[in-house]
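Problem 3 from the worked examples.
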Amino acid sequence: MHPPAAHTPIWSKAAKFPDFVLPMGHASERHYLMSQETHSARWIGFRQPVLRVALERQGKRFENTWQAHREAGLGEVWEEEEFWIELSWRVDPDGSLGIRKYFESPFRPGEKLTVEEYYRWIFENSVPGLPEAAAKEGLTPLDYMRRYGAALGYFSTPGSADAGLYAQGDPVTGFANDKPDSKGWIGELDWVPYENTKFALQYTMYNKFNGGDTNYDGTGRNAKDNNTLYLLSWINF
């Protein structure tokens, strides 16, 4: 027995058997909250559609993200939350089934919930300390999450030993154990003071570099000696 429909923007095993394939945005083309247990701290990440934000900064306005995708030439690619909101209203248009009430706006009684209102309510009521931090800067919690960003990622580049490709003994670029293995963490802080301006501070920390953590090149250089701090800015015009 196969599923009648699949939500996916790509051709994959999930899209091979269903009767219908509904184009669904993922990755950067949707709103999404993230809070993995990567380290000993409480944090929350907020992902937003790239194309929709870019077009809105050009003065265009959209009720749903798929409208921005259509404007950009991608077709009617929905983001999942908006799909379920729309589906619930169509299944229960008058509210008699008791479904529609869960997808009504908390700020506009009786009106359809928008994805921005969905996250606005979460940030105003479910993230401890966020409303107070936003108020100090004269921002709403939603605007605060759109202005400031942070990311933490782990990377690992393994490889098989090969003395011909990964020779030892070269300063800085040498390889321990004839292996290319490198791993570590990348952290980034973002600040968007204006809609077209962004500043970012990125730090890369190596736990292993070119196959070793200490004296990896055979001349006394350690993996941590390659840690880097990167400051960047961009202006969109």
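Problem 4, a separate protein:
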Amino acid sequence: MYTINLCSALSTPFVRFSTTIGEQRVSDMNMQNASTRFEVIEAFHRFFLDVDTRDWSHLRDVLTDEVTADYTELWGGEVKPQTKDTLVESWRHTLSGFQATQHLLGNEIVSLDGETALLRAYFQARHALPNERGSHLWTVGGRYTARLVHRERGWLLNELTLHFSWADGNLNLFELATQRTQTHISAS
């Protein structure tokens, strides 16, 4: 049996379809699923907002104790799990040297499996640092695949893989940002 409910919220009508399977309404199951997907996407966005705002202590709170971050398609090297403190410190060391970073995310697709979520999304990451050796911007684009796990304090990032597609601008900004961070640490 299908039920159609016409609802009104702030004078914007919408239609909600529902049916019953056993004792549970399908619309209720879909709403719970949608709510969980929203929580996963929000945790993913919060992670990158913390990176861009340099909120290193809060960034630690959205990570599992051990994290795997795979940037080998961009930088090479090898992938290995590391503590969240080690990972956050390495990002702090590099990213603090930029004047600004901005991670734009979109087209998130979430697959749920119990207390684990797999999220895939497009991204563009802009890195800004005025300098005398070229463009002040470096932008990289591609896709992220992330695995999040649900814990008592919410959805936490456990694995992150960058799938590189393109880049534009001054790749030397990473070296300049690292040097700038070193200078600030030495002066402190």
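Solution to problem 4. DSSP finds five helices and nine strands in the chain. Residues 33 and 39 are 10 Å apart (CA to CA).
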